[in-house]
Design goal:
Blueprint: H1 9-14, H2 33-39, E1 44-49, E2 55-62, E3 68-72, E4 89-90, E5 160-162, H3 166-176, H4 194-208, E6 214-216, H5 217-228, H6 235-246, E7 250-253, E8 258-261, E9 270-278, E10 284-292, E11 298-305, E12 314-321
Antiparallel strand pairs: 1-2, 2-3, 3-4, 5-9, 6-8, 7-8, 9-10, 10-11, 11-12
Length: 322
């Protein structure tokens, strides 16, 4: 499994503060070959084990020879440097897969830095709970081990029926009600579809409470990592294309490495959780629910109980709408 989902719960709590902007500029304000190549794949954030055996947050980039390196991030999301001004790296076996760059620059009529301040908020109804009230409730102190051996179950997996607390059900309900999330199905091995990632990025910005029209790229990319538990590959380079086709109010401006969110989308679908199944290893659960308000009537989600984000406590690993 990719190192990008080997996580330390304690460290994740520390880095849930908003990440500082990680621009694609060097100290002399010139774009390096490494960072220009990174633009082609989008910022990939993950976790690695350092020389002291501790899990540390990193950003993956390409060095001058095209080799993937993992640069340590401090608690504010800035790339760390040593006394010589060199980036501090840790060993990694992860490899960035590059794709040809796409021209996603915006024109004068679609300038992402000129977003309006039309921002709306949505509310979520109280969860209905699972169908069977006598099934055992999961422990509130469940912990997730991130040891690199995860095998994420498929959406057709089955397990022992359990129940979540009302608070946990409310969180999952709100995550499944991200506007237009119902437009795509995916298994974890497929990677996260860019179209729903665009809408998720908007929802997460609202969830974080940072209401403004322009955002540095790092918090947006990190928020997607929290929600899905994995990097949304090529998100920056493909954001504008998929945002336009899926009508997501977000755009990426490569010139200054920022995202613009022009409004927060109103909720479309309403989800009522009807069944939760414990899939065993490493806090994977299958959540089944009924759906109203769109052209789908049922949702099956594979979720992992964790602390990628202290206010979520879950990541959505796979989705199937029908």
């Amino acid at each position: 499994m990719r190192k990008t989902i080997i996580l330390s719960l304690a460290l994740v709590v520390i880095i849930t503060a908003v990440f500082a902007a990680c621009t694609a500029k060097t100290d002399d304000d010139s774009t390096s070959t490494t960072e220009a190549n990174l633009d082609n794949v989008g910022t990939e954030i993950g976790f690695e084990t350092d020389e002291n055996g501790e899990e540390v947050a990193v950003v993956y980039e390409l060095d001058e020879k095209g080799k993937t390196i993992a640069i340590k991030l401090d608690k504010d999301g800035n790339k760390m440097k040593n006394d010589k001004g060199e980036y501090v790296t840790v060993k990694t076996d992860y490899t960035i897969t590059t794709t040809p760059p796409e021209d996603n620059s915006t024109n004068e009529n679609n300038d992402p830095t000129k977003g309006t301040e039309k921002l709306t908020t949505t509310t979520t109804e109280k969860p209905t709970g699972t169908t069977k009230k006598d099934v055992p409730q999961t422990s509130s102190n469940d912990t997730t081990k991130f040891d690199g051996s995860d095998n994420v179950p498929k959406t057709d997996a089955t397990g022992k029926e359990v129940n979540f607390s009302e608070a946990d059900q409310s969180i999952l309900k709100s995550m499944l009600e991200v506007p237009y999330l119902y437009r795509s199905n995916y298994e974890n091995s497929d990677g996260v579809p860019i179209d729903i990632a665009c809408h998720t990025a908007v929802w997460m910005a609202e969830h974080e409470g940072n209401i403004r029209s322009t955002y540095p790229s790092s918090p947006i990319v990190l928020n997607l990592f929290k929600f899905y538990g994995q990097t949304v590959v090529n998100f920056k380079t493909q954001c504008n294309e998929f945002a336009a086709s899926s009508k997501a109010p977000i755009s990426y401006n490569k010139k200054n490495d920022t995202f613009s969110i022009t409004e927060f989308t109103e909720k479309k679908q309403t989800v009522s959780i009807t069944k939760i199944e414990d899939l065993g290893d490493n806090n994977f659960y299958k959540v089944t629910g009924t759906v109203k308000g769109c052209n789908k009537r049922k949702v099956v989600a594979i979720v992992q109980k964790n602390k990628l984000d202290t206010t979520l406590g879950f990541s959505i690993k796979a989705l199937k709408w029908s």
